[in-house]
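**Fold in tokens:**
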Amino acid sequence: MAKQNVAEQFVDILVRAGVRRLYGVVGDSLNPVVDAVRRNAAIDWIHVRHEETAAFAAGAEAQLTGSLAACAGSCGPGNLHLINGLYDAHRSMAPVLALASHIPSSEIGLGYFQETHPDRLFQECSHYCELISSPKQMPRLLQSAIQHAVGRSGVSVVALPGDIAGEPAPDKAPQSALVTSRPTVRPGDAEIDRLVEMIDAAGKVTLFCGSGTAGAHAEVMRFAERIKSPVGHALRGKEFIQYDNRFDVGMSGLLGYGAAYEATHECDLLILLGTDFPYNAFLPDDVRIAQVDVRPEVLGRRSRLDLAVWGDVRETLRCVIPRVREKTSRRFLDKMLKKHADALEGVVKAYTRKVDKHVPIHPEYVAAVLDEVAADDAVFTVDTGMCNVWAARYITPNGRRRIIGSFSHGSMANALPMAIGAQFTDRRRQVVAMSGDGGFAMLMGDFLTLVQYGLPVKVVLFNNSSLGMVELEMLVAGLPSYGTANTNPDFAAVARACGAHGVRVEKPKQLAGALKEAFRHKGPALVDVVTDPNALSIPPRISAEMVTGFALSASKIVLDGGVGRMLQMARSNLRNVPRP
């Protein structure tokens, strides 16, 4: 039996860790690894057009599956392209292993062609970043990288010179057990006791939930029922906590709506559950705050805390619920539910007026129709910018749908690459990329990846020929919009030229039929919807704080134009409010 080389051993370890795909672009320093993948039936090489796409795709796969995903870039410029997608994966807590292949080991530090130092470059966007300088080092180093990525939920980067990848492995490495899943973390008894005391002492409690509530929906609902608490959420918490939620008061933040802001500021005790919500201007500074998170490093970094609880949300609530005293008064909860419904009523009026006849098409209308015709278990990947707004306000979560975006890193062009990774996890599941024309054009080359692999991703393109969110930022800051206009082709014609299904929609009455036709199509499809570039409005008062960062609560209604089915949900919840 032929002796393994380092690349073959590397690939075998990835397979044992559960990796089934390696996204990347081939290059000379990567050749030994790519060839090892070619000869291993348990893993596939996914050839993308840009390494940034590779990293975004791996990050999306990891977020959907909860398992390790992997990407690769060749030496120098190749692996440099990974960095933006790796930042996003790391900040999204997606377990991703990135292979940054390197120049010949004997030339490192001598200014060789394409030389960079990946072991330094990726430090900030990874939990682990090391250079393999010897074949004997590889198995243990790769194992450590995998365990960092999985155990700490983020990125690990391994730099591997091409010449070392092709060398014989010294001996078959012992098959050490690999960490492939995370444990649950229970807080200490003292923290649980203190949290129970604070809840029992508070008359009005609000829960504010983030992505750390994934898998804890039932516990959060039982907890809210027991303490009669309104439940708000951040954008990344929306898909996990908003559905089947009788206590919902909406979302806080720059894209917020409803009464979440009021609920977090008018309570006696605010409990932050699994959220590293970045906009501290939206958090109160005059109420008591407790924070529960599995990551101790985020506790208290956004707001002053009265209690920090280190533990995952589900296990913490399972400890707290039986011990906390049940509250009898619904006065605060019912007040916030009423405020929430009233707030949504006011915003919806702007959206409902002749929107199905407006040309160019209102983007809100596109999102609302998409929400109605998309599958109940669809995966939506969402471009940063105005598409974030439409997804936050119109895509209805139900416990089966997933909504993935660059919600922490805020990168352009993420929707299409993320859709690639999402679709590879399950070709039968509907995957919809909600793309802006600016983001789509930035990495448009990877539409060819959909065609090459026959991935049935549906791209719904919100085409307003501008960088809409940037334009809004300029207007709110009192600046004329400049450098935001896009001169676009007929994207549907481009899609057809690539060999995909493509249709252009310019009138509202064409929209539902075009979307349904695209969803019926078995391969990749693009629906190019020409939307109104003026579908933005500025609040009647522009404050200095808004100019410098949308800091006041009024900024949560900067973007006018409705909230889709959320009003219906709020009205439904009001049925539980006792009438005088």
